[in-house]
Design a protein that fits this description.
Elements: E1 5-9, H1 12-24, E2 29-33, E3 47-51, H2 59-75, E4 80-84, H3 97-108, E5 113-116, E6 124-127, E7 130-133, E8 136-137, H4 156-161, E9 167-171, H5 173-176, H6 180-192, E10 195-200, H7 205-214, E11 220-223, H8 232-237, E12 256-261, H9 266-276, E13 281-283, H10 286-290, H11 295-304, E14 311-314, H12 319-329, H13 331-351, E15 354-360, H14 362-371, E16 374-384, E17 387-394, E18 399-403, H15 412-419
Parallel strand pairs: 1-3, 1-4, 2-3, 4-11, 5-10, 5-11, 9-10, 12-14, 12-15, 13-14, 15-18
Antiparallel strand pairs: 2-16, 6-7, 7-8, 16-17, 17-18
Bound molecules: adenosine-5'-diphosphate.
Length: 421
């Protein structure tokens, strides 16, 4: 049995979060980084997610990338497509959610699609078309001041209507509460009335399961990770995917262990304190890197350190230290020096026998993944909410955990290795 669900995600960590949800619902899931090179064998999986970086690029480019992803997914067996974006509906009047959804609909010949970023587990709920984050309306949260996609209006019907020429309607919670048949009838009605999009209310996981059932035959579904919860059951009931699946079946990866941290978030700084009190630790600073610090030597020292457990290398620093580095070197150059150094250390250490790797930081993970020639990830068991253990596809087979800065408990860096295959 091959791929049945093809998903297109507008950023890397969002893609991993979605894959984590699919695995927990029993689908064998692979995340690919960008549309793969034709030489890459089609992964053996029930669901394949193509992770793009299309959330905030110009809409035309986001559309072009998404269409290329769609073409690959359909050519390789996907019978349903899920377009995944952030659970806070991150977008502007120019897009990219509306334009990408419209382009995918056109390519699939679909006349109605749905939008549902709800993810009750993380506090994102939708009621009467209004998106809540915890107890607050979206427009009253920190998202109001987001540097790239400020969200000032909580009405998803209005937000999406500004991004699409198709009419946007609503399936409200009173309908969802009546069950999947009621949702299906309402969608038929909305289409008959001339709507091309429908925002879906959902305030609890049960609602997402009802919606998943109702969407079984819709060629294109769009939403956050939450909407993916109810889709796997449809494939299982139709005999298109096996029982079990999920995180099972990843190969065990033996080899040395390394933690690389470039995130300066509070959670990561706590994890660094916890680990550095227990295991060999190396620190880099952007100023030293700018003065020609020899990263090959640091990699050599890491490989000579106690091999009986993980070693930590980090550049993360407090807000004050980061500000000082940025004042001296410029924000971009400071970040680039650190990312390049950590990526090079990852490359040299893998050459030297490291096979099990934890990386902290979204941008840092991106840099490391590129340096290691990784083209995809087979997704395994969840370590902490939103962070699964993975095995890489590409130049090397590595056990990996890639976490965005704020995720994970204080002992994440050591505990991750117990969950990794
Ligand atoms: P997060 O997921 O927490 O946002 P990222 O890796 O995406 O983490 O971003 C952290 C950024 O901070 C990276 O660009 C990294 O290179 C940079 N950085 C790390 N340490 C320092 C430091 N000491 N001074 C300045 N910038 C740093």
């Amino acid at each position: 049995m091959g791929m049945v669900l093809g998903t297109i995600a507008d950023d890397f960590t969002g893609a991993t979060d979605l894959c984590n949800t699919l695995v927990r619902q029993g689908m064998r899931t692979v995340q690919l980084i960008d549309v793969p090179d034709p030489s890459l064998p089609v992964p053996d999986a029930d669901a394949v997610t193509i992770a793009l970086k299309s959330r905030t690029i110009p809409a035309g480019e986001a559309v072009a990338q998404s269409l290329r992803a769609l073409e690959w997914l359909r050519a390789n067996g996907a019978v349903q497509i899920l377009f995944k974006y952030c659970s806070t509906f991150d977008s502007t009047d120019r897009g990219n959610i509306g334009p990408v959804a419209d382009a995918l609909m056109d390519a699939l010949g679909s006349r109605l699609t749905v939008e549902c970023p709800a993810f009750p587990e993380t506090g994102r709920t939708i009621y009467k078309g209004h998106l809540f984050v915890g107890d607050a309306l979206l427009g009253d949260t920190h998202m109001r001041h987001h540097p790239l996609t400020p969200m000032t209006d909580s009405s998803l019907v209005r937000v999406l209507q500004a991004q699409t020429p198709r009419r946007v309607g609503l399936v409200d919670h009173a309908v969802v509460a009546k069950g999947a048949d009621a949702v299906r009838s309402r969608l038929v009605e909305l289409e008959r009335e001339g709507h091309g999009h429908a925002i879906l209310d959902a305030i609890a996981d049960e609602d997402l399961m009802v919606l998943g059932e109702a969407l079984a035959d819709m060629p294109l579904v769009t939403g956050g990770s939450g909407i993916a919860m109810g889709l796997p059951r449809n494939f299982r009931e139709r005999g298109l995917i096996g029982e079990g699946g999920g995180a099972a079946g990843l190969p065990a990866i033996a080899g040395r262990e390394l933690v690389i941290a470039g995130s300066c978030s509070a959670a990561t700084l706590g994890q660094i304190d916890h680990m550095s009190a227990r295991r060999p630790t190396f620190r880099l600073s952007p100023q030293e890197l700018a003065n020609g610090h020899d990263v090959a030597r640091t990699a050599g020292e890491i490989l000579k350190a106690d091999a009986d457990g993980p070693v930590l290398v980090y550049a993360s620093a407090s807000g004050e230290e980061v500000a000082a580095a940025q004042a001296a070197l410029g924000r971009e150059r400071a970040g680039e020096l650190v990312e390049n150094a950590l990526a090079e250390i990852a490359r040299l250490c893998v050459e030297g026998g490291v096979r099990r790797l934890v990386v902290a930081g979204g941008e840092t993970s991106g840099a490391v993944v590129r340096a290691l020639g990784i083209s995809g990830l087979r997704i395994g068991a969840q370590i902490d909410p939103g962070v699964p253990a993975c095995v890489s596809i590409g130049r090397h087979e590595l056990a990996l955990a890639l976490k965005s800065g704020n995720f994970g408990g204080v002992d994440f860096f050591t505990r991750a290795f117990e969950v990794m295959p």
